[in-house]
Specification:
GO terms for molecular function: oxidoreductase activity. This is L-2-hydroxyglutarate dehydrogenase. Its EC number is 1.1.5.-. There is one protein chain. By secondary structure, this protein is α+β, with helices and mostly antiparallel strands. It folds into three domains: 222 residues, FAD/NAD(P)-binding domain (3-Layer(bba) Sandwich); 152 residues, D-Amino Acid Oxidase, subunit A, domain 2 (D-Amino Acid Oxidase, Chain A, domain 2, 2-Layer Sandwich), CATH 3.30.9; 84 residues, Orthogonal Bundle (Arc Repressor Mutant, subunit A). 31% of the residues lie in helices and 22% in strands. The strands form five sheets. Strands 1, 2, 9, 10, 11, 12, 19 and 20 form an eight-stranded mixed beta sheet that branches. Strands 13, 15, 16, 17 and 18 form a five-stranded antiparallel beta sheet that branches. The protein has a four-stranded mixed beta sheet with strand order 6-7-5-14. A hairpin with a 2-residue loop joins strand 10 and strand 11. The chain binds flavin-adenine dinucleotide (FAD). Flavin-adenine dinucleotide binds next to helix 1, strand 18 and helix 8.
Length: 491
């Protein structure tokens, strides 16, 4: 629910871009409100991607993508402790298998150095095999980028949002913006499903929908076409197969299908690239999955297909006009600012995008006075499975719900789920609990814990089980209780 009708700044979209911006703005004496159409933040592109903090050798020198990638990567080194982010600085390898690809590695090395990427080096075949013994025997060398890392994108977005809320910002979910209200070419507010919110500034961080938001205000300066990328995720039992992020040598059109560890010890392969029309279409396809399997096998011949546990896909917000990020004031509507076309490396760039956008606001005349009591730190959350046996015993003695394991694959306790539901940006759906705690992310993919998490959500939110949703606005899991007649018929 909205519960307010006036603010200084509205940020539309609760992905990593919007949450990083709202956190940056919460450093100043401003009323800031983030509006997200879905029941949870980080449920657009930010939830389904490769989760790599790219080093920054890929983008064209001088582009926003190149500058903000390298700056963002550096900022995450500071944010890691401040916000309690899960990051592993694994480094990445771009793998070459012939002399043409070796030449491309040299180009990438030069481009990376121009972009300011630290520590790049070309490794010999032997050096690559020493790091990655399971890689293709055809390897001839690789570009090593030590500043690349892997992280949990929705964990980062949640940390940005929670820190912003801690510092006075508001985050409202289930609140789609339906109309942009302007007067004499100037933004005056937004109309949402829950009413009008007056605002002096509106920031458009609506991902694949950013062009629609812009058009609602009368600015049709860009269009966004979604480009789907599909993935397969593998069980933790095969996690020792790769240590670093492995890219093939890129072609002119794509970074290619990669093989990578995740921050929690799984491995994944993907993504492919397929233009689609529907901005909510995240279905996977047999053809797409076959494509990523065959390409990933070129990097990792021993790919253990019988250890696949799930597949998913995400949508890149590919903008027309060259494909660089669109971060600027609207040329048509005063008070409207775009952070749009944020495709890869958008996760890596997010804190730098937020920094840049706030500087643009300053240049455009926004009065920015630093809060004296801004608190940059998020407290570390309790992760029961990572504690020593003694520490676990102590917690259970204080709160017996730490002794009740709800997700058996990932060892997630009822106490952690309750904490996720009542947190600063609390979980309202089964997948929101999953994203915060990992309940449902293991081998059985929620087969065991799903109904239990649903019951806990209903109890803690004081709603009927039929009102609990899986993820999207209308994804209800149960429709009604079985009547006695139905039960009898089923027996
Ligand atoms: C396949 C794939 C792989 C990728 N891999 C990487 C990677 O490894 N590293 C990297 O740095 N980047 C990567 N990216 C890019 C990265 O995922 C995106 O740049 C980033 O998630 C974009 O975040 P966002 O906040 O701009 O958009 P989103 O996360 O899509 O957020 C936009 C939000 O706006 C909301 N919204 C839309 N319309 C409205 C409305 N009317 N009212 C209110 N809210 C609205 C949506 O619900 C959504 O939550 C990848 C992307 C894809 C698809």
């Amino acid at each position: 629910m909205l519960n307010i009708d006036k603010t200084d700044v509205v940020v539309i979209g609760g992905g990593i871009t919007g949450t990083a911006i709202v956190r940056e703005l919460s450093k100043y004496e401003l009323d800031v409100v983030l509006l997200e159409k879905n029941p949870d933040i980080a449920s657009g592109s930010t939830k389904a991607n490769s989760g790599i903090l790219h080093a920054g050798f890929d983008a064209k020198p001088g582009s926003l993508k190149a500058t903000l990638n390298v700056r963002g990567n550096k900022l995450y080194h500071d944010l890691e402790d401040e916000l309690g982010l899960d990051i592993k600085w694994t480094g990445s390898l771009v793998v070459a298998v012939n002399s043409d690809e070796q030449e491309t590695l040299k180009e990438l090395l030069e481009r990376g150095r121009t972009n300011g990427v630290p520590g790049l080096a070309i490794l010999s075949r032997e050096e690559v095999l020493a790091r990655e013994p399971n890689i293709t025997p055809n390897v001839t060398g690789a570009l090593w980028a030590p500043s690349a890392g892997i992280f949990l994108p929705f964990g980062a977005a949640l940390a940005f949002a929670e820190n912003a809320v801690k510092n006075g910002a508001k985050v409202v979910t289930d609140c789609p913006v339906e109309e942009m209200v302007t007067e004499n070419g100037k933004i005056t507010g937004v109309r949402t499903k829950h009413g009008f919110l007056s605002a002096k500034y509106v920031i458009n961080a609506a991902g694949v929908h950013a062009d629609e938001i812009s058009r609602l205000a009368g600015d049709d300066s860009f269009a966004i076409k979604p480009r789907k990328g599909e993935y397969i995720l593998f069980d933790k039992k095969v996690s020792n197969l790769v240590q670093n992020v492995l890219f093939p040598t890129p072609s002119k059109v794509s970074k290619g299908i990669l093989v990578s560890p995740t921050v929690h010890g799984n491995i994944f392969i993907g993504p492919n690239a397929q233009d689609v029309d529907d901005k909510e279409d995240v279905a996977t396809s047999l053809g797409g999955l076959q494509e990523i399997v065959s390409k990933a096998q070129q990097l990792l011949p021993k790919l253990p297909l019988n250890a696949a546990i799930t597949q998913f896909s995400g949508l890149r917000a590919a903008a027309d006009g060259g494909g660089d990020f669109i971060i600027r004031p609207s040329a048509i509507v005063q008070g409207l600012f775009h952070a749009a076309g944020i495709q890869s490396p958008g996760l890596t760039s997010a804190p730098a995008i937020a920094e840049m956008l706030v500087n643009i606001l300053k240049d455009q005349g926004m009065e920015l006075k630093r809060k004296v009591n801004f608190d940059p730190v998020n407290p570390r959350k309790i992760v029961f499975r990572e504690l020593s046996h003694a520490a676990q015993q102590q917690l259970i003695a204080q709160n017996p719900l730490y002794g009740r394991v709800i997700c058996r694959c990932e060892t997630i306790t009822e106490a952690e789920i309750i904490e996720a539901i009542h947190g600063l940006c609390g979980a309202r759906t089964v997948d929101a609990v999953k994203r915060r705690t990992r309940a449902g992310m293991g081998r059985c993919q929620g087969g065991f814990c799903g109904p239990r998490v649903t019951a806990i959500l209903a109890r803690e939110l004081n709603i009927p089980v039929t009102a609990v949703r899986k993820d999207s606005p209308a994804s209800y899991l149960f429709f009604d209780k079985l009547t006695a007649d139905c039960r009898e018929a089923l027996q």
